[in-house]
Design brief:
Rossmann fold; 2 domains; 8-stranded mixed β-sheet; 416 residues; 5-stranded mixed β-sheet; binds histidyl-adenosine monophosphate; 37% helix; alpha+beta; BirA Bifunctional Protein, domain 2
């Protein structure tokens, strides 16, 4: 027997999964986003240049496919943002802001645990080419409204931070480096490497000792230029005015390199260690970094569908999940009624009704049991007598009552 690859999942019931996707599509189309699709295979180099050469995603988590002949290395996409920006540049999209979403599987070679998979799913949305920080407030409100109103979630928090512009960041990295110099003997070995290679990542360290050392670390929001400082103030003000509850989290730096200014995560305690079920932020340089002619300030986020599913499991009773259509199951009693059963089924399906036929030669009793298990509203029994008289015995599976009606009247009877 073969087993699924570690960190992947089989979905045998997609009702909730599809509910999230359908609701998100409807919600986003009201905000004038359009759906796009990009490939799962992308150039490896693209992620080095965007997600970041020194990020965990690129250094440790890529599923790569070795270059063939004179082609370049390719990989399974670990996230969608660089793909969307590549598509923006490659297709010379002119109209901005370009508001798009895409969804599907992403791949990261991580240690699997609850809410963390090697093949997982994101619903990813981006607004490419929009400078104003007010767009960030609008975008975050859109997400908050989605989780609260459409998915009926309430046990979550929104964490936000502001990473400033590139020059703020440059200055802050120096301030942080000085602060860490004073603690160098006490840092874990990973943080010592982070300090040299990607210093902001020290805040992602899970080591409790490091975390307690960083309690007094300088905050990037205390080291902003005037323009960023007023934008950061405006963002918080707008969120308050839009009734979005949030917590400022000074150590939220996000694990991907392209962010500047606004960053945020929606988290829920119900998820345990992997608490973020949606995350994103502003990124103003990615278009030029990936070869676009001019910078396009942008903002985006990705909803982790697998983690959102875990959250919805506990509230699904309150959700307006799509009702299954009434099913009629046809029970031909003998082989001689099989053709008639097919014709009746085809007639019902042609009229837009849902029907299935039991063709395994079981006894009536066991066919009734099967029809019940299938959730049938009606069992349509066809034996030699019914065949002879051009009739069908219709058994209502909820009330248990039966009626014999003419085959010709069946569609009208089931529709009413
Ligand atoms: P990210 O924080 O790497 O951001 O991922 C976004 C979300 O995807 C996470 O909050 C989590 O819910 C889900 N996720 C990530 N890795 C896994 C995993 N191994 N298993 C299950 N779920 C996972 C991004 O990917 C950015 N591209 C978001 C973005 C879009 N920023 C701007 N635009």
């Amino acid at each position: 027997m073969f087993r699924k690859i570690k960190g992947t999942q089989d979905f045998l019931d997609l009702t909730l999964f599809n509910f999230i996707i359908d609701q998100a599509k409807k919600h986003l189309s009201c905000y004038r986003f359009t759906e796009i699709a990009t490939p799962i295979l992308e150039p490896l180099e693209m992620y080095k240049r965007s997600t970041g050469e020194e990020t965990e995603v690129v250094t440790k988590q890529m599923f790569t496919i070795e270059a063939r002949k004179d082609e370049d290395w390719i990989c399974l996409r670990p996230e969608a943002t660089p793909s969307v920006i590549r598509a923006f540049i490659e297709n010379s999209v002119q109209q901005t802001p370009w508001k798009v979403y895409t969804w599907g599987p992403m791949f990261r070679y991580e240690r699997p645990q609850k809410g963390r998979y090697r093949q997982f799913h994101q619903f990813n949305m981006e607004i490419v080419g929009s400078q104003s920080i007010a767009q960030d407030a609008h975008f975050i409100k859109m997400l908050d409204r989605f989780f609260h109103d459409k998915l009926m979630l309430n046990n979550y928090a929104l964490l936000i931070n502001y990473l400033g512009c590139p020059s703020d960041r440059e200055l802050f990295l120096g301030v942080l480096d000085k602060f860490l110099d004073g603690l160098i003997e006490q840092l874990c070995s990973e943080c010592k490497i982070r300090k040299e290679k990607n210093i902001l990542r020290v805040f992602d360290c899970k080591n409790p000792n490091c975390q307690s050392l960083y309690k007094d670390a300088p905050r990037i929001t205390d080291n902003l230029c005037d323009e960023c400082n007023s934008e950061w103030g405006a963002l918080q003000e707008q969120l308050v005015l839009l009734s979005v509850s949030f917590t400022v989290q000074p150590k939220l730096v996000r694990g991907l390199d392209y962010y500047s200014k606004t960053v945020f995560e929606f988290v829920s305690q119900n998820l345990g260690a992997q608490s973020a079920f949606c995350a994103g932020g502003r990124y103003n340089k990615l278009v030029s970094q990936l070869g676009g002619k001019k910078d396009q300030p942008s903002i985006g986020a990705a909803i982790g569908i697998d983690r959102t599913l875990l959250l919805l499991e506990t509230v699904k009773e309150n959700l307006p999940l799509p009702q299954e259509s009434a099913l009629s199951v046809i029970l031909p009693i003998e082989n001689a009624q099989y053709t008639l059963a097919l014709l009746i089924a085809d007639n019902l399906q042609n009229a837009g009704l849902c029907a299935d036929v039991l063709l395994e030669g079981d006894s009536v009793k066991s066919m009734m049991r099967k029809a019940n298990k299938m959730g049938a509203k009606y069992a349509l029994i066809i034996g030699p007598d019914e065949q002879q008289e051009k009739k069908v015995t219709v058994k209502d599976m909820v009330t248990g009552s039966s009626e014999t009606i003419l085959q010709i009247d069946l569609v009208d009877y089931l529709k009413k």
